[in-house]
Structures are given as C-alpha cells and as structure tokens.
Specification:
The radius of gyration is 17 Å and the shape is globular. The protein is built from seven helices and 14 strands. The strands form two sheets. Strands 6-5-4-3-2-1-14 form a seven-stranded mixed sheet. The chain has a single domain, classed as 4-Layer Sandwich (Metallo-beta-lactamase, Chain A), CATH 3.60.15.10. About 20% of the residues lie in helices and about 30% in strands. By secondary structure, the protein is an alpha/beta fold.
Length: about 250
C-alpha cells in the first residue's frame, strides 16, 4: 500500500474569488489517478500543476453546476486534439449527468457530443448510498442540500486503503457526518464566514459541528471573498490552489 497524493487543482467559488480556479481535485494513488469535479478552469490548473491528463482514468462529479463540470468539454477536446488520448475515460456523477454533459458540450462546441473520439467515454450515473467501483476508486455518494436541477452529492472515496471525503456544495446536513466518518481527509466547503444562506455552508456552522465529524484531517474550500478575508480568524485548515496533501 503506497502513498495517496491529493492535489487541490482549484479551490475557488463560482466567481473566482481571490483569483482561485474553479473546483477540481486530483488524486494520485498506486492503483490509478482520477479527478474529483472538473470546473471550467480545470485545464488551466492541470497544466499549471504539470499533471498528466492522459493518466487520469476517471472524473467524479458531485453536482451539475458549471464551476464543477464546466471543464469536462475542454478536457474531452484537449484529449482528442492535443493529448491524443487513447485510454478509456469514465465520467461518474449524479442522475442527469449524461444529459447535462451532452448539452454542455454542444453549447460550448456545437456537435462535440457527436464526434467519434479516439477513446471510449463511459458515463456512469451514481445511485445515492450505493458503493460503486469507478476506475481505481470505490465511490459512495450521499445526497446533500444544493439546488442544481439534479441530485447533488457529497462523495466518500476509498482507494488503496485510504478514505477521502468531499462535501461538494451543500448547506449543513447530517449526511456530512456519515461522509466524513473515519476519513483520512475530509474536504468541506466553507462559503461564507458566518452568513447563513440556502444551499451553502458557512464556517461558523461547520465549526459548531466539528466534533461530530470524525475525520483525521479537515480542510475547507470553495470560499467567497468574505471567507477569504477572514482566514486569520479560522481554526480549520484552508485549501489553496496547488496545495498537496499526502494521505
């Protein structure tokens, strides 16, 4: 059992607060490599970090907003035209993923969804609560609270004896307790410092529930300008673009 490296490729909110890129995490494990979310700026982040795109076997999606899936059409286009990919690619996420992705590809590049790629693309729509093998990782999705037109998920990921967890975008829900339980790393959104709004989690609410989250390490992400301006006041570890954690 070797090391698992978690790279924060993008840690920003939808509006690029603090100059951060949209959400994307890269996981490199002995058994394979995969992305968690693929926001619109993902290609910039992958190239900035020197990550081999062809080595990525799967893209796991928490929900179907552009700052979490908007980079997939660019990833596919790059794989076809630049990276000359031949290996299969699995894209897995909530119900509705196949239709939303097809439409997104054709809005950005009309006809792209009908282009015959040099590599197989397999779409997997995950069922909440059901553990599913996706490429090198076992994924268990938990439905959370975030209006996006289709079910939003937090993800619990098991790879090479490690457990990684990610909240996706959500307001507080007790499902996060199950997602984070015994995880080696739990990455959780913290959009505002103390302002409570629907569909998102603020730092004060997260801190109030910290003792319920039985994880080894908790890192906050997806921060607004308000949250970023108050990092000196927080006790939890913040993410940053390019940050790497070896689990």
């Amino acid at each position: 059992m070797g090391e698992v490296t978690f790279t924060f490729v993008g840690t920003g909110d939808p509006l690029g607060s603090g100059g951060r890129l949209h959400t994307c995490f890269h996981v490199a494990a002995p058994s394979g490599r995969f992305l968690v979310d693929c926001g619109a700026t993902t290609m910039t982040g992958l190239k900035r970090e020197g990550i081999d795109r062809n080595a990525i076997e799967a893209i796991l999606v928490t929900h179907l907003h552009g700052d979490h899936i908007g980079g997939i059409p660019y990833f596919v286009l790059d794989a076809q035209l630049v990276a000359k990919r031949t290996a299969p690619l699995v894209i897995a996420g909530p119900p509705g993923l196949a239709d939303r992705l097809r439409r997104a590809m054709d809005v950005m590049f009309p006809g792209l969804s009908d282009v015959e790629q040099r590599f197989e693309i397999r779409i997997v729509e995950l069922e909440a609560g059901r553990r599913t093998a996706v490429g090198p990782v076992d994924v268990t999705p938990f439905e959370v609270v975030h209006a996006c037109g289709d079910p939003p998920y937090a993800l619990r990921l098991e790879v090479d004896g490690r457990t990684l967890a990610y909240s996706g975008d959500t307001e507080w829900t007790d499902a996060l307790i199950d997602v984070a339980r015994d995880a080696n790393l739990f990455v959780c959104e913290s959009y505002f410092y103390e302002k409570e709004i629907p569909n998102h989690l603020d730092y004060r609410t997260l801190w109030a529930h910290r003792d319920e989250l039985e994880c080894d390490r908790l890192v906050i992400t997806h921060m607004s300008e308000d949250m970023l301006s108050r990092l000196s006041e927080v006790e939890l570890e913040p993410a940053a673009d390019g940050k790497r954690i070896v689990v």
